[in-house]
Amino acid sequence: MVKLSILLAGLAAASIQAAPLERRIAQSISAATQKWEQACRAAGGGERCNPISVTAFSTLLAGAGPCEQQDSGDVMIDLAKQLGNDAEMIRLTQIFVQQPRNTPNSIATPYCQKAPKNAELNGLFQCQFVGANQEKFNGGATLGQPGTIPFGLNAPVNPLGSCPANTAGPIADSSQLVDQVQSPGNGGSSPQAPAPAPPASTTVADSTTAAPATSTAQAPPTQTSAGGGNGGFALANGQEAQQLNAKFAGLTEDSTCTAGEIACVGTAFAQCVEGKFATIQCGGGLICAALPLVNARGTSVTCTTTADAEDRIARTGATGGLTGSGATNGGNDGEDVPEPESSATIATNLPAETASASTVAAPTATSAPSTGAGGFRLANGQAAQALNKKFDSLTTDSVCQAGENACVDGGFAQCVGGKFVVTGCAGGLVCAALPLVNAPGTSITCTTQADALARIQATGATGGISG
């Protein structure tokens, strides 16, 4: 087990390209939507901006499906239209959908093979990184085969690796297109032009029609719009949690990983330090698992009970238990899964390959009085409120006991040497105590204010996050 001080030191020194032997081409993915989120907030989007931004830049991870980036672009355009058809948000979205995706093995990433929902994204597709082999694609296809030619074209891109915003060719490895171009090119409609989008009732670009009817836990889950209400993203969150749990079942401490990557190894919470997973055991008979968020698009990785994890996943409508295979532990040997890299939002909603070292330490669980299945949920909500109220008064100089976990100044904190060591939450998130769903107790993790409030309110507790 690696102590927190060592873990943080390892993270601070880590590079986003931590596995040169794997010839990974990665990037600071959060930078891809940072300007869009700023424009969104300036346009009045408020708390709606960050969850959409986080989900969008997560689609740049190597394990994401070929259409997830475009689907997130549609969600970004939807919000821009709700905010007065904001031209800057639309322009930045058009550039975002052309940002290259990470590649674990220096070959090109496949192109989406369906039309976007919004006409503003018509004809837009991602550039490739210059270090990638432009004639071979992830998944085994070679140039000219399905998935190697952008939707709507009948011949390979010329020059190879180019996109409408950068017609000269691929862009520098790990760079951000949004820092290099101002115009998204001629693929989509102008942001100022009257919106020629198809009627809302059309099914031609409906992302739900593209998912195979027999998808498995190894296949990327159907991407649904976060703007479509809780009933839309809840199922996708559940399916992504199952996919992550299936992937985690095949990991060991010796599995190849990327600096800062968060996962579960066995029953322990794990974080990648210097190319190997450092594990932190969950206490009190708990296991580490990926869970679906309740009030935003994405997942979290935390310590919980098996029953609680299965219950949260089942509530989204996803079937097949923890991994989607009906098995509690495993259901996947890892051989057909992209390298251990989350395609969903994890613990702090900060995916593995951002440049920041501010990822959360192991979420923890605390006990709450057991009052039976009908009563402990309220007790859990009230216990979470009490903890959050206590956390409000803590500082880095507060007296603490070795190994104690808390929230201090909005960050995840662990007691080391009698003082709290704080790891900041990323992307506008906050540290909070949350109620477990199917067992007495609470967990501590980084999340959105809305998600924390929704989980507490669902228990019947009143008075907000702190009671």
Automatic annotation (TrEMBL):
Residues 318-332 have a biased composition (Gly residues). Keywords: Signal. Residues 1-18 form the signal peptide. Residues 200-225 have a biased composition (Low complexity). It comes from the Eukaryota. Residues 177-234, 316-343 are annotated as: Disordered. This is Carbohydrate-binding module family 19 domain-containing protein. It comes from Coprinellus micaceus (Glistening ink-cap mushroom).
